[in-house]
Design brief:
The protein is α+β, with helices and mostly antiparallel strands. It has helices spanning 5-27, 30-33, 53-72, 102-113, 119-129; strands spanning 36-42, 45-50, 79-84. The protein folds into 2 domains: 5-84, DnaA, N-terminal domain (GMP Synthetase, Chain A, domain 3); 98-130, no CATH class. The chain has 5 helices and 3 strands, in the order ααββαβαα. The longest helix has 23 residues, at 5-27. The radius of gyration is 27 Å and the shape is elongated.
Length: 130
């Protein structure tokens, strides 16, 4: 990638963002860092994408402290801009419920008959009927 000038620039940007992300994760509280992604550093302002509004609000409260820790770590950060970037998960197809084979039902029924009255016996009877 470093042979092509356009790809070299892209590689440098990706490496810079990865380093900024690592430094941000070290500076931010762990309960917030996992829900945030560094999106850039422009003119001393670090841009962060937060997973939801709650994380963004807390991050805005802590941004002066985080910026100070980043400066102590060698980053030239004068401020932090936080945006909410909601990601949508693709809904997974639902699997049909699993059913017991007739032989398994029979064995569970036999087992429940040999047990004394108990919650386990009731559960096994119900499972063998359903």
């Amino acid at each position: 990638m470093s042979g092509d000038p356009a790809l070299r620039s892209l590689l440098f940007t990706a490496q810079s963002l990865a380093e900024l992300q690592k430094q941000f994760q070290n500076a931010a509280p762990s309960y917030l860092a996992g829900s945030c992604q560094v999106t850039g550093l422009h003119g001393g302002t670090l841009s962060i994408a937060a997973a939801n509004g709650t994380v963004a609000a807390k991050l805005r409260q802590l941004s002066p402290d985080i910026a100070q820790k980043l400066r102590q770590g060698g980053c030239e950060v004068s401020g932090i801009r936080v945006r909410v970037q909601v990601t949508y998960e693709v809904p997974r197809p639902r699997r049909p419920p699993r059913t017991l084979s007739p032989k398994a039902r029979e064995k569970l029924s036999e087992l429940s008959e040999n047990l004394p009255d108990s919650p386990l016996k009731k559960a096994l009877k119900k499972l063998s009927r359903d």
